[in-house]
């Protein structure tokens, strides 16, 4: 059995991380969608630092602004106030490669699994510059290695319609990782799968993270998923969202499904659940 140690702990003191620069900083960022009577205050003034190598899960009541934070971090959305910093500079000033995987895998149906996985190498620099030279050699090998790591060896020539939902999501993860992103954004990536498939994918995701140590920002409604995968969980308040709790999750890795039934793990998810239910109830009063 995996040793299950502390459940919740305060994030490391500032002095412990002082020498490492955050990869992403939300500096007093807020977001309001629309204007006038139609304005929706989605995110209240929020501060968040994501350190290199973090696996950070964002949880909170529906509509609290979790995906809004993903959009800010990816540069798809500008804040209404405050700054989003990447490696200490304004977004866009530093080149940060981003990989994304969302709930519905958006695989291109006319491309094979391998071609789908290799797509970012065709589009994103510096890989794009060598595309024609490497697409039949190094890049193909890289795609095959990733597919093998997620249990899809031999499926490279299949088309998306020949895959199960879980296989499509595995392919989606490979595509999000093939260009070695500095930051992986996951928005409910396993949400459309049944519980057993989801649990299999947690193990796959953990394996990928343990070998690559990519910085990951995961949005999920599933507290067990957050506890299994993340080394940090941020709980958001109801809309307009802000981060209410930022806790370290220090269970040993690799984590297994056995861990999920251990008292320390159950206590963690139960505590987070009560916090979120309390927030939902407070928002409707
Ligand atoms: N383009 C938009 N225009 C107006 N309101 C928006 C827009 N996008 C999001 N919102 C609103 O902002 C709030 C936060 O949205 P967001 O998608 O970030 O929440 P979420 O926490 O990811 O929700 P869920 O858990 O349900 O996916 C929600 O109330 C949503 O309805």
TrEMBL record:
GO molecular-function terms, A-Z: ATP binding; ATP hydrolysis activity
* Keyword Membrane among UniProt keywords: no
Q: Which Pfam families match?
A: ABC_tran (PF00005)
- What domain of life is recorded for the organism? Bacteria
Where in the numbering of this chain does the ABC transporter domain appear? 24-263
Sorted keywords for this record are: ATP-binding, Nucleotide-binding, Transport
The record ties this protein, via InterPro entries, to: AAA+_ATPase, ABC_transporter-like_ATP-bd, ABC_transporter_ATP-bind
UniProt family annotation:
Belongs to the ABC transporter superfamily.
Q: What is the name listed in the Swiss-Prot or TrEMBL entry for this protein?
A: ABC transporter ATP-binding protein
- Protein's organism: Elioraea tepida
Q: What lineage does the source organism belong to?
A: Bacteria, Pseudomonadati, Pseudomonadota, Alphaproteobacteria, Acetobacterales
């Amino acid at each position: 059995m995996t040793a299950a140690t502390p459940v919740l702990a305060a994030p490391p003191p500032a002095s412990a991380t002082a020498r490492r620069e955050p990869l992403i900083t939300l500096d007093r960022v807020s977001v309001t969608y629309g204007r006038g009577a139609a304005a929706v205050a989605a995110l209240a003034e929020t501060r968040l630092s994501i350190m290199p190598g973090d696996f950070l899960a964002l949880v909170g009541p529906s509509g609290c602004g979790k995906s809004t934070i993903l959009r800010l971090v990816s540069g798809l959305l500008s804040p209404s106030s405050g700054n989003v910093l990447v490696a200490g500079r304004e977004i866009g000033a530093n080149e940060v490669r981003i990989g994304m995987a969302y709930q519905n895998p958006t695989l291109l149906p006319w491309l094979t699994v391998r071609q789908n996985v290799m797509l970012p190498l065709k589009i994103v620099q510096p890989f794009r510059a060598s595309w024609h030279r490497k697409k039949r050699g190094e890049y193909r090998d890289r795609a095959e290695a990733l597919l093998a790591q997620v249990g899809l060896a031999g499926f490279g020539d299949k088309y998306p319609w020949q895959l199960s939902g879980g296989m499509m999501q595995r392919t989606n993860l490979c595509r999000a990782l093939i260009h070695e992103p500095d930051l992986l954004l996951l928005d409910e990536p396993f949400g459309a799968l049944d519980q057993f498939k989801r649990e299999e994918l947690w193990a796959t995701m953990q394996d990928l993270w343990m070998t690559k140590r990519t910085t990951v920002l995961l949005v999920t409604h599933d507290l067990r998923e957050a506890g299994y995968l993340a080394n940090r969980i941020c709980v958001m308040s109801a809309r307009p969202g802000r981060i209410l709790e930022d806790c370290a999750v220090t269970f040993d890795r690799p984590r297994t499904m056995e861990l999920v039934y251990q008292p320390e793990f159950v206590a963690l998810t139960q505590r987070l659940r009560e916090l979120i239910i309390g927030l939902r109830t407070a928002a409707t009063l």
